[in-house]
Design goal:
The complex is a heterodimer of chains A (about 400) and B (about 200). With about 400 residues, chain A is α/β, with parallel strands linked by helices. Chain A has helices spanning about 1-10, 20-25, 40-45, 50-55, 60-70, 85-90, 110-120, 120-135, 150-160, 165, 185-195, 225-235, 265-270, 305, 325-340, 345-365, 370-385, 390-395, 395-405; strands at about 35, 100-105, 140-145, 170-175, 220, 245-250, 255-260, 280-285, 290-295, 315-320. The longest helix of chain A is centred in the last third of the chain and has 18 residues, at about 345-365. Chain A is globular. Chain B has about 200 residues and is of the alpha+beta class. Chain B has five helices and nine strands; from the N terminus they run ββαβββααβαββαβ. A five-stranded mixed beta sheet of chain B has the order 2-1-5-3-4, with helices on both faces. The longest helix of chain B is centred in the middle third of the chain and has 18 residues, at about 75-95. The interface between A and B is medium-sized, with 34 and 36 residues.
Chain lengths: ~400, ~200
């Protein structure tokens, strides 16, 4: 059966040349639809920049806004899930000078930031302006994936049309590098990229809020995180005991798209929205996420629930696969991806990703041994413990979850 | 002065000192490869990783600055296991133990690692050494990307890394230049700091 699948679909080594990869590369051709995104629809009905106007006219004080952000528990949506206010509070003593907004979204199969930037650019710009007023920042770098041409045009248009609201805030909208460069989405690598250096992660500490862009204190936020701020201010009730989040549901489903879900919902219910048939397994958290068989998804979609299965929320991508797909092939594609996308800076990640790829080939050729499985576990442990950035720490998740859930190893 | 604990022993340290500096003072050996006093801190080889209470990941001793009441374990099972794997990675990339610098070989024997179960040195492209000049010669198949040469070079535009992941290579000038076409003055600093012989000189 496995041989047949190999012939029919895609070979792992030519992942880059395969149809799957071009699917990722030219993200723009995919018209990803927003489904059940009521918060965003309500926002555009109310009209853009209302909340910012309120703040400018002193109808809403900074303290009130901060209190709302605090009580809502709004978290970073780029994968870290650190409360937004905590991140800001850490930076305030250093008097941040720059705000960098990460719209690179290099994670394959993830389109939530694209969706926001394409359809609700005003929302993002309003969120940025509010953040700048709260943090007293005047210069913003908004870096957009270079495959997102229409989103880029929309954003530059909104920025130039609304200069009156933005006043002394300068928003520089930049294209990111080649859309294939996954690692530049790491926050310190993005700083290097903006400075014109090689897009490699920096040594942390110093953290960006201590020494960031051009050695000045810098705050880095994801597109989605800032976009939730205007929605929070106009509809605080949406956040009472709830943490809304956008997820990308893709794969063998009849209704692929961007869904607004609540963190803590059952994963089963979230998946059911996409109306998939004959599901066999899912990948939660993007390409660095873990693979689990469909019978185990009886958990809550939040950090604690997912960690029971060795998964993480990550960029909020859930890919669904039917029974014609092979989890081993999907896992191998992830290892090939990380082998190519590691920046090559630190040893555990650069060599470890090559080892993971080699091990996945052993599994494909069915010549794995007890020794090689033990070695793989030490490699993965070392990568998680010692890699300098998130890529190396997460690269072994697909392999480990595959072994755990599909092989009981 | 602040008080910290290393391997359950109370030690006094100055503010701003790194764990490695404090450990050295109490004659505790932590293996290091990419670290060289005087060069910018990069912590890329990660072999000096130590366990610190309150952190769920290991942190590099060469760049982590001590904090008040820090509880550090430099030779716990977790750290030693990680170092063994990393040492094997280094041997695999270099293509053997024999030609590594004496110091690295010593650390390897302390860890009890003398070979790797896989080798990667033969995967470099064949023409990767074509940048060599008369004085500075390359053997990139031996390179372990410790970045010492990149940091030791007096001109920041001479040596850098190109490509990514498994394809990482040293490159020169604005990319793909021959060494003699760059600002290289053949001072030999890069040769002096290289622990592998990937950059060498016949002179």
């Amino acid at each position: 059966m496995r041989d047949e699948i190999k012939k029919q679909n895609y070979s792992v080594t030519s992942f880059y040349e395969s149809a799957e990869k071009s699917y990722v590369k030219e993200k723009e051709i995919i018209e990803i639809e927003g489904r059940n995104v009521s918060s965003f629809e309500n926002y555009s009905k109310e009209g853009a920049f209302n909340q910012l106007k309120k703040i400018i006219n002193n109808k809403l004080s900074n303290a009130e806004v901060l209190k709302l952000i605090y009580t809502s528990g709004l978290c970073g949506c780029g994968g870290s899930h650190i409360p937004l206010l905590k991140k800001w509070q850490a930076a305030v003593p250093y008097k941040p000078e720059y705000l960098v907004v990460n719209g690179l979204e290099g994670e394959p199969y993830t389109f939530k930031d694209y969706y926001i930037m394409l359809h609700y650019p005003q929302l993002l710009i309003e969120g940025i302006a509010i953040a700048c007023r709260l943090l007293e920042i005047n210069e913003v770098y908004l870096v957009v994936n270079s495959a997102y041409k229409r989103a880029y045009e929309n954003l530059t248009k909104i920025v130039s049309e609304n200069k009156s609201f933005l006043k002394n805030i300068t928003i520089n909208v930049l294209y990111g590098p080649n859309p294939d460069l996954y690692i530049v989405g790491e926050e310190t690598a993005l700083l290097n990229y903006i400075e014109g250096k090689r897009g490699e992660p920096r040594l942390k500490p110093p953290y960006p809020h201590e020494k960031g862009l051009w050695n000045k204190s810098t705050i880095i936020n994801n597109v989605e995180t800032l976009s939730w701020i205007p929605i929070l201010l106009s509809a605080p009730e949406r956040f009472i005991n709830k943490h809304p989040k956008l997820v990308t549901l893709l794969g063998d489903v009849s209704l692929p798209g961007i869904y607004e879900v609540d963190m803590g919902d059952s994963l089963e219910n979230i998946i059911a929205k996409a109306e998939a048939e004959d599901l066999s397994f899912v990948e939660v958290g993007g390409i660095s996420g873990g693979l689990v068989p469909i019978k185990l998804i009886n958990v809550n979609y939040d950090v604690d629930g997912l960690s029971q299965l060795g998964l993480h929320v990550g960029s909020g991508t859930i890919r669904l696969f039917n029974s014609t797909r092979d989890p081993l092939l999907e896992m191998s594609k992830s290892t090939e991806f990380f082998k190519e996308e590691s920046c090559g800076r630190c040893t555990p990640c650069r060599v470890g990703t090559q080892e993971l790829r080699k091990f996945s080939q052993q599994l494909l050729d069915s010549n794995e041994t007890d020794d090689s499985i033990n070695w793989l576990h030490s490699v993965s442990e070392t990568m998680q413990q010692t890699s300098s950035c998130g890529l190396g720490k997460a690269a072994s998740v697909p392999v480990i979850t595959y072994l755990k859930h599909f092989r009981n190893l | 002065m602040i008080k910290i604990s290393i391997n359950n022993r109370e030690v006094e340290a100055k503010t701003g000192q790194t764990i490695l500096q404090v450990a050295k003072k109490i004659h505790l050996s932590i293996p290091t490869i990419c670290h060289l006093p005087g060069l910018e801190l990069r912590s890329v080889c990660r072999i000096c990783s130590v366990e610190i209470e309150g952190h769920n990941k290991l942190l590099p001793a060469c760049s982590t600055v001590v904090e008040k009441n820090m509880q550090i374990q430099t030779h716990s099972t977790k750290t030693v296991n990680a170092r063994k794997v990393l040492m094997e990675f280094i041997i695999a990339e270099h293509g053997g133990l024999e030609t590594l610098s004496t110091q690295v070989r010593e650390y390897a024997s302390q860890l009890g690692v003398n070979s790797a179960r896989f080798y990667l040195h033969d995967q470099k492209p064949k023409d990767c050494n074509r940048y060599s000049s008369d004085y500075i010669k390359l053997a990139q198949e031996k390179c372990i990307h410790c970045d010492r040469c990149i940091r030791a070079c007096r001109d920041s535009h001479v040596i850098s890394r190109s490509h990514r992941g498994s394809a990482s290579l040293l490159t020169f000038g604005e990319g793909d230049w021959l060494i003699e076409d760059t600002a290289c003055s053949s001072c030999g600093d890069c040769v002096a700091v290289c622990p592998t012989g990937a950059i060498y000189s016949d002179y």
